Amino acid sequence: MKSLTLALCLLICLLARAQLLKNLKEKVESKAKSRLESKKQEAKTKARHAVLDELDQLKAEFDSTDFDYAVLIGNPEFGNNSRIEKLPATKKEVESISVLFKGAGYHISILSKKRLLKKT
């Protein structure tokens, strides 16, 4: 009977040890997954901040230079001997686009007709 009790105690100890190891393994895995997710989130946040910082720098560079001037080109006149077709519809396009730019505060120069001819 002693040996049976001893065997039973040994079995209980082994099962308890196995259960403890299983619980420990689950806790370690859970903690590792939690850390991994935390590191992933941290990396995403860091990357997002790096991109936003770079965009802010680009915006600051852009804002510090004076880009409030637009040159619009349309309705060219290529001369009588040109094989290029005339583009009269571009006059309306340039006028429509100039309204948009003016509304955004741009100074506009429109080049058309003979003002486009290259003088040599």
Features:
single chain, 120 residues, alpha+beta, 2 domains, two-stranded parallel ribbon, 2 helices, 2 strands, 12% strand, rod-shaped
What does this entry show, briefly?
The protein is α+β, with helices and mostly antiparallel strands and 120 residues long. It is 65% helix and 12% strand.
Trace the largest sheet across and list its strands: 1-2
Contiguous low-pLDDT stretches (5 residues minimum) are none
Q: DSSP helix count? A: 2
Alpha-beta content class: alpha+beta
Helix-strand topology string: HEHE
Q: Give the count of structural domains.
A: 2
Chain-averaged pLDDT? 79
The percent of residues in helical segments reads 55-70%
Shape: rod-shaped
Gyration radius, in Å: 38 Å
SSE order and pairing:
Blueprint lengths: L1 H63 L4 E8 L12 H15 L3 E7 L7
Parallel strand pairs: 1-2
What does this structure look like?
The chain has a two-stranded parallel ribbon with strand order 1-2. Helix content is 65%, strand content 12%. The longest helix has 63 residues, at 2-64. It has two domains: 1-65; 66-116, no CATH class. The chain has 120 residues and is α+β, with helices and mostly antiparallel strands. It contains two helices and two strands.
